[in-house]
TrEMBL record:
The keyword Repeat does not apply. Residues 6-370 form the FAD dependent oxidoreductase domain. Keywords: Membrane, Oxidoreductase, Transmembrane, Transmembrane helix. The lineage of its organism: Bacteria, Pseudomonadati, Pseudomonadota, Alphaproteobacteria, Hyphomicrobiales. GO terms for molecular function: oxidoreductase activity. GO terms for cellular component: cytoplasm. This is FAD-dependent oxidoreductase.
Amino acid sequence: MKNSYDVVVVGGAVIGSAVAYYLSANPDFDGSILVIEKDPTYAKASTSLSSSSIRTQFSNPINVRISQYGSEVIRNFADMMQVGDDRPDLGFQSGGYLFLANRPQQVQTLRENHKAQISCGADVLLLNRDELANAFPHLNVADIELASYGRSGEGWFNNTGLMYGFRNKARSLGVDYVADEVVGIGRQGSRVTSVALKSGTTVGAGTIVNCSGPRAALTARMAGLDIPVEPRKRTLFVFDCADTPEGTANINDGRLPLMIDPSGVFCRPEGRFFLTGCPPVEDPTSDWDDFEPRYEEFEEIIWPALAERSPKFEAIKVVNQWAGHYDYNTLDQNLIVGRHPEVRNFLFANGFSGHGLQQGPATGRGVSELIIYNEYRTLDLTEVGYERVLNNRPFIERAVI
């Protein structure tokens, strides 16, 4: 590790490593890059504990396009991230997403979202009740008024594979990684100048990028800044199914999608099992180190909803569970990406609210363009910039799970 770097990235999971990769892979950038990660095992990183999915079914065109690029990267990941003979395979499962609606407001939202998705070229279908019953005969659809199904560009994949692919490629391109914790940020007027590490070292920084996930607000405060991001706990369960419906679909070679029930409960295949979760009834800020699962959610919320939706889900048994943290943007549940308008060499890549994996590639590329060119060259992320935080102007995403 050197005494100073042109770019210091705080947080080395998928977002931080994507930023490091896109910077180091760009021939127009020849600066030095340091990534600081407090937990090199990534055991509690939001990346590692996520449901590892990607979808284009959002309400805002910018989020659709962000995920379309993410899907492209996932498809080409082995070629992009090859290091020597290592070609990382993300094991992408193209199951799609299936949103179900049984109330007028939900139906209206699906129709409006569909218009935004189609305008971006997303491969999404609206299904009426009969079409839904024919496509997925295991479902009880008597109450369903409309469904939205992603035929391509959606599915699930290896979450840590994405992170380590970016990380290993970045390191091969000369990026330095250090296992340490940022405990202070030096600032002189309208510029940040350095980071102080828990080990006692101080490292000079030409630019600092905040990629610290649920701890984003802590990092920002060290620079005298603020961001409306806090940890919110989400519990995931893996269950076995006595009579699995996987393979019964009449589309997509029998494979089931990630289904989002009108109740908010979701589930998808996970190998021979299923992965499921739900929005919590109460959603307070979590302690930074609280990873205790909310065990009661399965019996009280998830199982009743799944059993009502399909007789195939009446006999199921939990085989594993864990809790992770969303880096929850309390303003509008949308990513915050870009420079601080006054402290211009401090950049945010935060507040993904559960969508960080799928939005990581476009975010990494966008942040790298701001650093190198001082403008976006590919996908314009201005709409999700920090200015809306200062102006208290929410940019609402209606399709948050």
